[in-house]
Amino acid sequence: MADLFRGQSKDGLWRGSPIETIHRLFGLHLTVRNPDPRINQGLDKLLRIASSSGEHFNFIPSSRLRGLPFTQGPRQAIILLATLFLCSIFGRAAAPFTLARYDQMTIRLNTETLSREKPAAVHNMLRAFVVHPTYVDLKDPIRTNPGPTHTAGSAAGEPAMPPPTMAMRMVRVPFAEP
Q1: In a domain, 175, yes or no
Q2: What pLDDT is attached to residue 71?
Q3: Which domain holds residue 82?
Q4: In the structure, what pLDDT confidence band is assigned to residue 86 with cuts at 50, 70 and 90?
Q5: What is the mean pLDDT of the chain?
Q6: H or E element that contains 60
Q7: Which residue from 58, 100, 119, 136 puts its CA 20 to 30 A from 164's CA?
Q8: Can you tell me the distance from the alpha carbon of 64 to that of 141, in angstroms, rounded to the nearest whole number?
Q9: The overall pTM is greater than 0.85
């Protein structure tokens, strides 16, 4: 575990790279259950990067993501989805930023735009969903539950868009590496 922490800079990144930081945090999540200040510092930096509007057109190949549950895609999307995944794993599933981004993805997965998404993008979005407690139902993963009630702008207690399990049943998107 000490090897995974080695090389983290003061800004929270490992080797100055968001992708390397995602790799390290993913490795740490396999053994660490409670985040410590170093993990939180890495997550904080990833959240700042994920919130920025840069590098949408830079592409990260699958080879750079080896060992992670994500596949190739635009850099900014990979960073955002991996950060959401890690926030859920490390106890930040209820944080406002995390909830807002999950709500945006829920809406995106439940509209006609889903059929225009590349299979790799859908794969990466669903990977982020499977670890968030709002979207996990171990007793009946196919059941459509009422979804979260935290969507910004919705009335108190009014259900948000249905969870992705409904989208997965409505749209059959085969996964294939491009």
Answers
A1: no
A2: 93
A3: 2-170
A4: very high
A5: 77
A6: strand 59-60
A7: 58
A8: 31
A9: no
Rounded to 5 degrees, what angle do the CA atoms 158, 164, 170 make?
110
Q: What share of the chain is helix, strand, coil (3-state, %, to 5)?
A: 50, 5, 45
Domain-embedded: residue 135: yes
User: SS3 of 14, please?
Assistant: strand
Task: Considering only CA atoms, give the Rg of the chain.
Answer: 16
Looking up tokens 């590098």 gives: 55
176 located within any domain:
no
- Is residue 14 a contact partner of residue 7, using CB atoms and an 8 Å limit? yes
Contact 169, 142 (CB under 8 A): yes
Tokens of 177: 């590496």
What are 136-147's pLDDT values in tens digits?
763 443 334 344
pLDDT of residue 2: 82
178 pLDDT higher than 70: no
Tokens standing for 72? 């190739």
According to DSSP, residue 73 is labeled E
The answer on pLDDT for 99 being more than 80 is: yes
Residue 178 lies in a domain: no
